[in-house]
Structures are given as structure tokens and as C-alpha cells.
Fold each of these.
Amino acid sequence: DIVMTQSPDSLAVSLGERATINCKSSQSVLYSSNNKNYLAWYQQKPGQPPKLLIDWASTREFGVPDRFSGSGSGTDFTLTISGLQAEDVAVYYCQQYYSTPYTFGQGTKLEIK
Amino acid sequence: EMQLLESGGDLVQPGGSLRLSCAASGFTFSSYGMSWVRQAPGKGLEWVSTISGGGGTTYYADSVKGRFTISRDNSKNTLYLQMNSLRAEDTAVYYCARQDFLYPIDHWGQGTLVTVSS
């Protein structure tokens, strides 16, 4: 199984500042035949189901603000929120869909400082 | 508008059984794979199972293999999860989600709570 490890577990950032969340996979999730990373980021607000923010490591979903960006390849990935807004308080998860079981990271709780 | 509506969550004793349902609307159900993902109280997300659009291919997490069965009825636009030999550690909110094989989850239901306790 591919193990996904996020860091940090929690993060407090001031409004308007940048938040950075890391995700590391125990093996590469880059499929060489199409050069795609099978890595997604989700946002979960309290009492709500998760919401897909970014797939293929860096493709923002329709309607997701452009302050959210994803980067990385192979085994190391980053979710960056530039200019933190109050509504960004949530738990963020990465997930690999390269192979089953489609494992998630443990989550990173983002709060306002 | 696309919707996924789970039902069937309940309080059940250890060793008992339960069947969850997920009614889908707003998209061509049979054209998409579907998954179940669960979240224990205060914990993270755990992928449980995925089924292909036609229902012929399924995958399971080791933690539920042999106890849970995913299925679908494309004539009713409904996804199911039959859960047998339930354990306390199966207590969680179970989310129905649209997910094809080798694709991310692009839509989630609101979830249904399963509590396994005596």
C-alpha cells in the first residue's frame, strides 16, 4: 500500500499570509506513460463532506479560488494557499489515486493565527 | 445539479449487519465508477471500496475485505454497501462518492452515520 504522510499536522497562519501543506508518498504516484501525478487535495470544513480542490497534483477544479495552488511530482507534493482568508479554515487532505487502496494523508488542520 | 444522498446508517450491535444506500441524480450514473469512503469520529478519511460503472469490477480496503460488499443497481441509480460482521472500529460516517478508477473523487454525498456498539 502507498502511505501518504502530511506535514504539519496543524498550522496557524495570519490572515493574508501564505499557508503551505506538504504531502509525501511512500512510492511515486507519477505514471510515466502519461507524465501525470495521481494526487489530489481535498478541503473539509467542519460538519461538511470533503471538497475536491486540486487533482493531478496541480490542476485547480472549476470554481476553486486561484489562491489555492498545488505543486510537486513523484513523491513530494505541496498545497499552497496564498493570501489566507477566514473561510479557508478547514482540514486539508491529500490522496493518491495511482493504485488501490486509494490512501489519504492523515490531514492538516489549518487555523487562523 | 448532481446529488448523492446516502441512507441506511444506524446503531447496530457488534457482529450485526447493515446495508447502506446512495441515491444518485444529476448525472449518467452508469457511466461512472463509485466509491465509499468513511470517517471515524474526529478522525481522518479512509477509502473503503470502489466499483466500476458497469458493476463488474470492485476493489476493497483490507480492513473490510470479506465483510463488506459494494454493489450498484444502474436501473435505480443507486449504490449500495452491504456491511456484515460489523465491529466497533467500523463506527464512522460513510460517504458515497463519485470516483472512476484512477481518478479523484469529484463529488461527495453528505454522509450517513454508522455506530457499532452494544
Amino acid sequence: GNSVTQMEGPVTLSEEAFLTINCTYTATGYPSLFWYVQYPGEGLQLLLKATKADDKGSNKGFEATYRKETTSFHLEKGSVQVSDSAVYFCALRASGSARQLTFGSGTQLTVLP
Amino acid sequence: ETGVTQTPRHLVMGMTNKKSLKCEQHLGHNAMYWYKQSAKKPLELMFVYSLEERVENNSVPSRFSPECPNSSHLFLHLHTLQPEDSALYLCASSQDVHSKTADTQYFGPGTRLTVL
């Protein structure tokens, strides 16, 4: 079956530090890959996505590259801000599966001033 | 109002109560979803509706009863819940459940449910 594995948190960084949150997946075919972010007390917001191998999704300074050879979609940001503190979820939508999003367990990020 | 809205944002209920959660999407989408988010667990898909027809039910207990009167509204009716049902219930919508490209789901803020 399909699965998503994220690095376990919590992750605590100082402002302006470099961020990497690892995400690997298991799926047949060519899934679409997503990063969602959940700020405290809110629902999930789409952060970025990639729909085919070697695509790079980017938004708000965050980037992730779809690596089929390593089945990975790691999230990176060069310089985090306090306002980036949130829970980050990696997810996949398997090819041929129009409805099912499979989520990772989420990674809590705290950025300290 | 834009996006996906959910009401109420917070709900506390006893095990014998009956309550309903409401979701409304203002995006012109055809598909709507209910998810359950429990502490330290991945999001669990509960129900999927496409054009007001239920197309997926992931083995959810019958104490949860969804209703989709039109493509913009989705309800989750709750009755005789258990304390372990306490969670954040998230609604989402997407443009077309069968589309390979329009596959992005947009989420509402959720309803924080506490069952006493």
C-alpha cells in the first residue's frame, strides 16, 4: 500500500537557520506529492506540490524536489522565521487514485527568536 | 467569504448528545471530504463525496453519519459518540475527484470536538 514517512519532531531552530524536513514515500506508479502546513488552531494549508519526477515545488521560500530515484520529497528553507512555526505534513496522491491523500504523521517546527 | 469554512470551530458534547458539524466551500468544487485528525496520528480520511454522491467510506463507525445536500455543503452528524472520538475534524474540497491534474485538496480550519 501507499505510505509516507516523515522525520519525527519536534524540530526546534533559531531564526534564520536552515531547515530540512525529510519525507520519503512508498507508492506504485507516479504519485503527486504535497507539503501541507498547519498553523496553531487552524486547518491544513497547501504549501507546495509536485506532480512528476524532478519537479520542484516552491512557495514562501520553501522548496521541495520530487526525487523518484530516492522516493523522497524533502522540504527545505534557507532561512526560517518565527512565523514558520507550525506542523508540516507530507502527503501523496497515488496515480489512478483520484481521491485518497495519504499523509505522514506531521513534523512540529518551532522557530525561536 | 472564500475558501472552505467550518462551523462550529469548537464543540463539547456528552456521549448521549446529537450534534452536527457543517462545512461549506466557496470554490466551485465538485468533491468534498471529511478527515479526522487525532493527536500523534496521521490524518484519517473518513468520507468522500463527489457531486453529492458518497463515493468512499473508510470503515467509519455508524455513529458518524455524513450528508451532502449539494456540492457546496457537507455535514457530519454525530450521535452517541465515545471519548476516543475527540479530535479535530477537518473538511476539504477539490475541483474534480476524477481529474488527474486538479488533485489539490483545500482544507477548512476544522472543528475541535471534545466528547465527555
